[in-house]
Automatic annotation (TrEMBL):
Residues 1-26 form the signal peptide. The lineage of its organism: Bacteria, Pseudomonadati, Pseudomonadota, Alphaproteobacteria, Hyphomicrobiales. The keyword Signal applies. Keywords: Signal. It comes from the Bacteria. This is Uncharacterized protein. PROSITE patterns: PROKAR_LIPOPROTEIN.
Length: 110
């Protein structure tokens, strides 16, 4: 004769989950956004010398100076990108936490 299925394990797991969830009236915690001070500043593109558009072109020293400024600008882009991606990750985490907070608040209304 087949034995009846043991249903105590799922019920026990459900009870444990309910106990871990805390009291029914637990307050929802509002998330806080990442500090604006952590937002990286975009590097400033150096101004293009007017002589670049002139028919005769730029004197060598001015062209080299501008080239050096562009190289310095390009060197700043890597760290800026890393910082911007990190800040964007924090913003995404804030948005996700905001959704969780809104869902929690909605559950308190039920």
């Amino acid at each position: 004769m087949p034995r009846p299925a043991d249903r105590s394990a799922p019920a026990g797991a459900l009870a444990l989950l309910l106990l871990a969830a805390g009291p029914a009236g637990a307050a929802c915690t509002a998330p806080s956004p990442p500090p604006a001070a952590e937002k990286p500043a975009k590097p400033v593109l150096p101004p293009k010398p007017a002589c670049l558009d002139a028919k005769a072109g730029c004197p060598g020293w001015e062209a080299y100076t501008y080239g050096d400024q562009i190289k310095a600008y390009n060197a700043q882009l890597g760290p800026f990108r890393t910082g911007a991606e990190a800040y964007a990750g924090k913003l995404k985490a804030f948005v996700d936490a905001s959704v969780a907070y809104a869902n929690c608040e909605m559950k308190t209304l039920q």
